[in-house]
Predict the 3D structure of the following.
Amino acid sequence: MIDETTQEFALWALATLQFRVEKTSDRYYALYPKEHQRGQFNGAHRVSFTFDEVLKEDKVLEKVTASSTLFRWIQRQIAETGPAMHAAPLRQPVSQHELQPHLLRPFAVEDGSARVVECRLSDRPVLRLSVRSAGEKSPDPVVRHRYFDASGQELSAELLQTLAMEPLAPRVKRSSRLTDQKLQAVIDQACETGGLSQDEVLAAVVIWCKWAEGHITFRIKGMEAQHPFSNWAQVLVRDAKAVEPFHCAEASQSSYRISASDDGRITVVEALDVCQASQRRVLAGELEQCTASGQKMLPEFLQTCPACGEKAYRKSISVCRHTQLECCPRCMPGGHADPYEKLHLAFEHHPRLQQLMESHGPFEGWDSWRVGEGAAVSVFTAQQKRNQLLLVVDNNDSRIRHAATRTPWQRVWTATPVESLPELAAAAESKA
Ligand SMILES: [Zn+2]
């Protein structure tokens, strides 16, 4: 059983070290050692090897495994090049042109467009440490790779799968960005986090992978929004969700579906809703609910009902002809404000009545007090001989918001200026 990783590693290393290797049959390869090295192969200018079982009749040096003689020779050639060899994935995106469709693929822009306006590609290193491991299907030891980032942290299996770095391209010029000293520090750190001793490592390879960063511009009806991206180029190509969804800070929502509000803000479709009062498309978070109809609308179309304290659509508000209160439909049963409808006899210790007396009392001569409580206001009525008094009082500061009087045979209350109230009491007193 041929171990593909071991085979790939050996052939790639020989190619990178610039040895001439030929495949001579299904099973066999020929290596041509450099002239000065022929002594190491009994003067042979051509050495046959295989990764398969060696048959008796074959004139083959050896079956290459992770601990065979030829493998160890390759390992020594690698070691002579420095702390690590350099490589790049054979296949990976190398231009903005290749990346562009993949960067835009996850986005759907309503009535607009998306464009990659900037895309910078650079090489970032991934460290591959090759170690000798027991074969699973044969007794021969095999090569296994472990991968680490530039800080020495091991890459996750998921990222490795998406990054798809293997196979490696042969003969990549070493980058001058990493000095041997820095490289050795990364290898040391990787060995530490990977739980490897330096002796176990057969070879270290720096794989230069393309990293892409830049931004996408969404354009809708003359408005623009920028969206940054930054990831491995290969991951951006292979994983549609590697570009982050667009984040609308105002709505605190992210999505791949981009749209704009009617007032010209670029956001995500999920953050938009229609104001039922104006039919304008706005950020859903800015809408409030009309307590009467349940419809959502912008605050400018709502008014707080003094009876229930809830907000209702301005156009649904009506005025109680007794109290002049502007109430929501729910608080106008029978056409009158709810607190007026609810008037009931109030005894002296009623807190609202006490509050009224403390602020404006003593209202001498007035009796048969009734009170109807609302969320923001309370309605009071009282009698004195042939006069009836109605007061609408603010629950918060006890301010009299409206006052009116009538006689028992009048159905309609007549508004009375608040400042004339004491006189009203005095007039009633003198008539008696
Ligand atoms: Zn109400």
User: Anything to note?
Assistant: The pocket of zinc ion is lined by residues 305, 307-308, 310, 327-328, 330-331 (CB under 6 Å).
